[in-house]
Design goal:
The structure is a single chain. By secondary structure, this protein is an alpha/beta fold. It has one domain: Collagenase (Catalytic Domain) (3-Layer(aba) Sandwich). It contains 5 helices and 4 strands, in the order E-H-E-H-E-E-H-H-H. A 4-stranded mixed sheet has the order 1-2-4-3, sandwiched between helices. A hairpin with a 5-residue loop joins strand 3 and strand 4.
Length: 145
């Protein structure tokens, strides 16, 4: 099976990103976790849409940067990821990162969730951040495959 990416928008302009390079990078990140990229869909949206999705499907009443719907089967990563570009921008300002750097972190965050890395339990956030940082170092290195 070949990997398949879909890049969609809902209520926002498509961000200025190199999807081909990101796809290669995400395939490398998945491989580093002994996973294979299957069908991944990214939906870029605004805060209004992300809170609607959060309320409807997760029964959470708060804004977030990403919601990942995991349909992974064994080693084959599959899922849909909603990313609020509004929250990405807000978080970038809060942590002193560029918008694009924060967007890359959030994009890979979704794949890391599909790889089985969690961030809600005790000590899990630090583990997720370590995996994000390793993936971002791969990006910075040019993600040569």
């Amino acid at each position: 099976m070949t990997n398949s990416f879909q890049w969609l928008t809902d209520g926002v302009a498509f961000p200025d990103i190199d999807t081909a390079r990101i796809e290669n990078w995400l395939v490398s990140v998945a491989r580093d976790h002994d996973k294979i990229v299957g069908e991944l869909t990214y939906i870029f949206c605004n805060d209004e849409k992300i809170i609607e999705v959060n309320r409807q499907f997760l029964h959470h009443d708060y804004y977030t940067d990403i919601i990942t719907f995991d349909e992974t089967r064994g080693r084959l990563l599959r899922g849909d990821m909603f990313i609020s570009l509004d929250t990405v921008r807000t978080n970038a300002e809060l942590v002193g990162a560029t918008y694009n750097a924060e967007l890359l972190r959030v994009i890979v965050h979704g794949v890391l969730h599909l790889c089985g890395i969690n961030d809600k339990g005790p000590g899990e956030r630090e583990i997720m951040e370590a995996h994000e940082n390793a993936a971002l170092a791969l990006w910075e290195a040019g993600n040569q495959i």
